[in-house]
């Protein structure tokens, strides 16, 4: 693929726009990714024609992480407050899901990831502080980072959705190095906290045929099961990772040793 073809196929831009839904349906494990930034009005979860359902969550589950100001999500009349980097799992069968900001001068930015579900799990909230932070990496390899796991085995229960985020420390730029693939599920990345004038070089492709995509702040990369997903920024940054597929095992991956990369 050319650069423009690769970006067209795997990059999602501009997911946060005031009072506008941005949703992208993918054929990678039928993941649906998007965002909403309520400012002047509450935003009800729509029912995209691609899923051919009576309502969005008729046969799906949903994970939401707020990367903006304080917000609230109302699920079938129940209210859940989400501050910055808090998460909400919304179970299959929920019919009314409404998103709002608490301050339109500092709006919430709700990042959404959804996949098919065949069992009902309870809607539940988790704060960043409750998300079992795990410290990894070394300063000498420029990849000191903290991983927060929200929807996973041992966290918020789901049918097949896995979701969390990684924050790199200042002076560190590499994520997921050495890289890996996992044939049993697809993955989606939202890069955020990328300062103006900076960017992340996301590496995808097979381990022996890697391909780059330059990613700006609050843009999404789709990562198929056959692709590595590694990246280096021109500064430190953060990213939300989400997966769906055969299992909920966070450590299920097939490593690609650095010396084998091409």
Helix/strand layout:
Elements: H1 3-10, E1 11-12, E2 22-25, E3 32-36, E4 43-44, E5 60-66, E6 71-75, E7 78-82, E8 87-90, E9 97-101, E10 110-116, E11 124-126, E12 134-136, E13 145-151, E14 161-168, E15 174-175, E16 180-181, E17 185-192, E18 200-206, E19 209-215, E20 219-223, E21 230-233, E22 238-245, E23 254-255
Antiparallel strand pairs: 1-20, 2-3, 3-10, 4-9, 5-8, 5-10, 6-7, 6-9, 8-11, 12-13, 13-14, 14-22, 15-21, 16-23, 17-20, 17-22, 18-19, 18-21
CATH architecture of the largest domain: Sandwich
Supply the CATH class of the largest domain: Mainly Beta
Strand content: 35-45%
Name of the CATH superfamily of the largest domain: Jelly Rolls
In one word, what is the shape? Answer: globular
Strand order in the sheet with the most strands: 1-20-17-22-14-13-12
Amino- and carboxy-terminal Cα gap: 16 Å
Name the assembly state. single chain
Residues in helix, %: under 10%
Radius of gyration: 17 Å
The description of the largest β-sheet is: 7 strands, antiparallel
Going by helix content, strand content and strand pairing, the class is mainly beta
Question: Can you put this structure into words, describing what you see?
Answer:
This protein is mainly beta and 262 residues long. It has 2 domains: 13-118, Sandwich (Jelly Rolls), CATH 2.60.120.10; 129-247, Jelly Rolls, CATH 2.60.120. It is 3% helix and 43% strand. It contains 1 helix and 23 strands. It has a 7-stranded antiparallel sheet. A hairpin with an 8-residue loop joins strand 12 (134-136) and strand 13 (145-151). The chain is globular. The two termini are 16 Å apart.
């Amino acid at each position: 693929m050319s650069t423009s073809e690769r970006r067209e196929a795997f990059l999602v831009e501009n997911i946060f726009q005031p009072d506008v839904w941005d949703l992208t349906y993918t054929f990678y494990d039928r993941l649906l990714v998007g965002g909403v930034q309520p400012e002047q009005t509450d935003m009800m979860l729509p029912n995209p024609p691609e899923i051919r359902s009576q309502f969005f969550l008729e046969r799906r589950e949903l994970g939401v992480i707020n990367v903006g100001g304080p917000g609230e999500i109302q699920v079938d009349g129940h209210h859940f407050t989400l501050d910055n980097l808090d998460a909400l799992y919304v179970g299959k069968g929920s019919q009314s899901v409404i998103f709002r900001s608490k301050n339109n001068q500092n709006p919430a930015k709700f990042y959404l990831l959804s996949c098919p579900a065949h069992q009902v799990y309870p809607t539940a909230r988790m704060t960043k502080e409750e998300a079992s932070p795990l410290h990894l990496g070394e300063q000498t390899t420029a990849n000191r980072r903290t991983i927060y796991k929200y929807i996973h085995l041992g966290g918020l229960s789901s049918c097949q959705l896995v979701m969390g985020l990684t924050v790199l420390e200042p002076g560190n730029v590499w994520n997921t190095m050495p890289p890996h693939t996992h044939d049993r599920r697809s993955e989606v990345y939202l890069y955020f906290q990328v300062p103006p004038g900076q960017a992340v070089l996301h590496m995808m492709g097979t381990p022996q045929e890697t391909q780059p995509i330059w990613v700006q702040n609050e843009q999404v990369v789709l990562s198929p099961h056959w692709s590595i997903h590694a990246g280096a920024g021109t500064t430190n940054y953060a990213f939300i990772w989400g997966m769906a597929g055969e299992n909920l095992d966070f450590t299920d991956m097939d490593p690609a040793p650095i010396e084998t990369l091409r």
